[in-house]
Amino acid sequence: MGRDTGSPCVLVVPSTKNRTYSIFLRGAAEAAAEAVRGGGDALKTTVAHGMAQATTSPRAVTQQLVHKADAAEALLTHWSRMASDSFRVAARWPVDHPFYTALSGAYEPLLVSETIRQLFPLLCHAAYEVPFGHHLVWERYDCTLDPEVLRPGPATPELRATCRDLVHRRGRVRAMTMHIELVRDGVVRARARSRFTIQAPAVYDRLRGDRADTARAMAAAVPVPEPALPKTVGRDRAADVVLSPADRPGRWQLRVDTRHPKLFDHPVDHVPGMLLLEAAQQAARAVRRPARVLPVALETAFHRYVEFDRPCWIEAHPLETGTVRVVARQDGEDRFTADVRTRGAR
Hints:
- With about 350 residues, the chain is an alpha+beta fold.
- It has helices at about 30-35, 110-125, 200-210, 215-220, 275-285; strands at about 10, 20-25, 45-50, 50-55, 60, 75-85, 85-90, 135-145, 160-170, 170-185, 185-200, 245, 250-255, 295-300, 315-320, 325-330, 335-345.
- It folds into 2 domains: about 10-205, Hotdog Thioesterase (Thiol Ester Dehydrase, Chain A), CATH 3.10.129; about 220-255 and about 270-345, Thiol Ester Dehydrase, Chain A (Roll), CATH 3.10.129.10.
- About 15% of the residues lie in helices and about 35% in strands.
- The protein has a 15-stranded antiparallel sheet that branches.
- The chain is globular and about 55 Å long.
């Protein structure tokens, strides 16, 4: 089956140097463009001397702008431009989510990163006029959080984003570093920084070749191995465990269950970056046992994409600094690395 060009999907793909991950929307171009236009008025910006200026009225966020097939998974609601490269974005977190909330009612750390990740396509498309179908290539992602951000209860966080080190080529933004503060109840509870580049679809098609066929790629996925015990990786449900015990402590096979409705909101052509972030956090929790810990900081690098059709191995070991080094390896090569800092969980 060829690619479905009639419905949107997010893909994670390599850069021209074959060492990074990207996220992009493919298909539904006319509908998505209309969402950006917002009927002609919703997303207008004031331009003076070639620089976009602040606008006062918040603009609605659509699921297309955050690359979600399921509208219920869109966490961002409105955005405003405060200055040329500074933005404020409103979010709403579900009180009871089957993947992002624990049985205790507390939010899972990955929800913070997913909320931040949705900023990338939103601002690229709506604020910087990056066309749908282009690729946002993830190189680095670092995040620290205050555990208070995860406490149970209704939450409507505000995200404050500043885009720096922008690279322009042929009139379009080609790379940027985004700095983010996440505010809950008036207090900054998380900070993140991410560097990514932006590529045209032709680059992706040339590099990925036959692997660009998402249906074929997902159909070739290796069988899903048995999960680790949920309590050993800080999860409540076996379906949300992304690690399977391997031949020694501190080593697991990555569980790539393409039927998971949240990690695989839409077809993709290789393992999503968010699944790798969750694997790093679960591995860090497992290594710290029997202590119960909470991941509170990540420093990650995406080196090469992880393919569906071969096993990927997750290895973790504590460092003297108190962090846990996590490496995802496939075919003997490091594909993804993360330093995860933890603290005792309540």
